[in-house]
Each structure stands twice: as structure tokens, then as C-alpha cells.
Specification:
Elements: E1 5-14, E2 17-27, E3 32-36, H1 43-51, E4 58-63, E5 66-67, H2 73-78, E6 81-84, H3 96-104, H4 110-123, H5 139-151, E7 157-161, H6 169-184, E8 188-192, H7 196-202, E9 205-210, E10 213-218, H8 220-225, H9 227-233
Parallel strand pairs: 3-8, 3-9, 6-7, 7-8
Antiparallel strand pairs: 1-2, 1-4, 4-5, 9-10
């Protein structure tokens, strides 16, 4: 099976600092994959390379078998990638429904547009807040609204950058249910996340980054049980060899 997303020897440095260092990564079609690691591991840089915001010094990025390394961000989005960043990029002065309308307006119109807005509001648990100013939503609701705007493009791959940051446990669990529902509809998900309860809830596979390299890969249970993974979070591991953790 051709991976939906693949990187080959992907590398990016800023000055003498190798933030992404020969990363070989693959995500299967329809997979939920979480990317974890301590602060400074290179997770956000890796995401920006995938999106085309950064240009790698060397290596390749492939999407559904096509080399997209040189493509602009908008071209990657047109091919079925979408992203939700950690800080919500909503329009705070507009209503919740209007935010969704803006995201959908180039794809639908008339009755179809209204029906899709109502469907997304229900999916996001925001029906009751449809006419509220987006800026008045709770933090968790703002995150959900941006997820709704991201999935309005009907992506094959959704990139999530710490989607549950600042959420309550109940909001985090509800977000996990949304991600799982999207996945049942065929959307592959790659999420940067620190909340291990959320990772355990959604992830089919987990990759651990450390100082720009892949440190470990495996199932959630295998990664959580790996003492070396715990050590890097405590700052006790200096040399991070590539390692594949056997499935639990």
C-alpha cells in the first residue's frame, strides 16, 4: 500500500541547529497517528515542512505517491491536506455560523451551503451557539470551530497541532470522539499532542521525536511502556537512536 504521507531523509536546520534531521516517516491512508516528544523535539518544524511553510535542506515529502516537496501550501491543500493550528484562527467578531460559511463559500451555495453549516454545527456540538460571536466561545469551543473550518474542505489528511491544549478533560474526550468520527469517514489524521490520555484515546500508531530525529515508533501502549521514552521527557536521554517499538 502506498502511504498517504511519506517523508524520506527530511532535514531542516536553522544555522547550526538541525531541527529536523533525516526523518523517514510514513502514514497509511485512513490512519490516526500521533506525534509526541518533549519541547524542542522538532514537532512544529516537521509540521511546517509538511505544509510547505518551510523548505527542507534535503529530503522529500510525498503525498499519495506524488513528490510535493516543492509545492506551495495552497497546492498541498488542493490535493486534500488541511490543518488546524494550536492557536485558533477564527474570525472572532463574526458569528459561529458565519465562520463556517466563510470556510464553505467557495465549495457550496444556496440550500446545500445551509445544510452543510447545520451538519457541521451539530457535529461540533455548536448548534446552540450558531448565532453567537465566535470570540465569545469558550476556549474548547473555539478549537472545535476551527476543526470545523478545517474539515469543511473535505480533506483526506487532517493535521492537528495540539488540538486539546487548554481543554478540560470532558472537552478533550469530546474532541477525541470527533477525530474518531472523522476517521470512520475516511479521514487520515496526524496530530501533535502532549495529552497522553487523548493520544491513548485516538492513536493507532505513535511516533516519538527527540532533537529532530525519530526516537521510537509503535502502538500507544508500547510507547507508554517504553522506559527510554519516559527518560527523554525527564531529560535523561542524550543520544536518540531510531527505534521501532514492537506492537503490544
Amino acid at each position: 500500500m502506498i502511504p498517504l504521507l511519506e517523508t524520506r531523509a527530511l532535514s531542516k536546520h536553522f544555522g547550526g541547529l538541525h531541527v529536523t534531521n533525516d526523518v523517514n516517516f510514513a502514514l497509511a491512508p485512513g490512519e490516526i497517528h500521533c506525534l509526541i516528544g518533549p519541547n524542542g523535539a522538532g514537532k512544529s518544524t516537521f509540521f511546517r515542512l509538511l505544509l510547505g511553510e518551510y523548505t527542507p535542506e534535503r529530503g522529500q515529502i510525498l503525498y499519495a505517491g506524488e513528490d510535493i516537496t516543492a509545492l506551495k501550501p495552497f497546492a498541498r491543500i488542493r490535493r486534500g491536506m488541511s490543518v488546524k493550528f494550536q492557536v485558533p484562527g477564527i474570525f472572532p467578531s463574526l458569528s459561529v455560523a458565519h465562520n463556517l460559511e466563510i470556510a464553505l463559500q467557495h465549495h457550496l451555495e444556496g440550500a446545500s451551503l445551509g445544510a452543510e453549516i447545520r451538519r457541521l454545527l451539530a457535529f461540533l456540538n455548536l448548534t446552540a451557539a450558531a448565532s453567537d460571536r465566535a470570540g465569545n466561545l469558550s476556549h474548547g469551543q473555539k478549537q472545535w470551530l476551527e476543526i470545523g473550518m478545517a474539515i469543511s474542505l473535505k480533506p483526506r489528511l487532517l493535521l492537528l497541532d495540539e488540538p486539546t491544549a487548554g481543554m478540560s478533560p470532558d472537552e478533550t474526550f469530546a474532541t477525541g470522539e470527533m477525530v474518531q468520527a472523522l476517521n470512520r469517514d475516511g479521514v487520515a489524521v496526524l496530530a501533535i499532542e502532549h495529552d497522553m490520555a487523548f493520544v491513548r484515546q485516538i492513536a493507532q500508531r505513535v511516533t516519538v521525536l527527540h532533537v529532530g530525529r525519530i526516537f521510537a515508533q509503535g502502538t500507544t501502549d508500547a510507547i507508554i511502556a517504553d522506559e527510554r521514552v519516559a527518560a527523554i521527557y525527564l531529560g535523561e536521554a542524550d543520544a536518540p537512536p531510531l527505534r521501532s517499538v514492537a506492537d503490544a
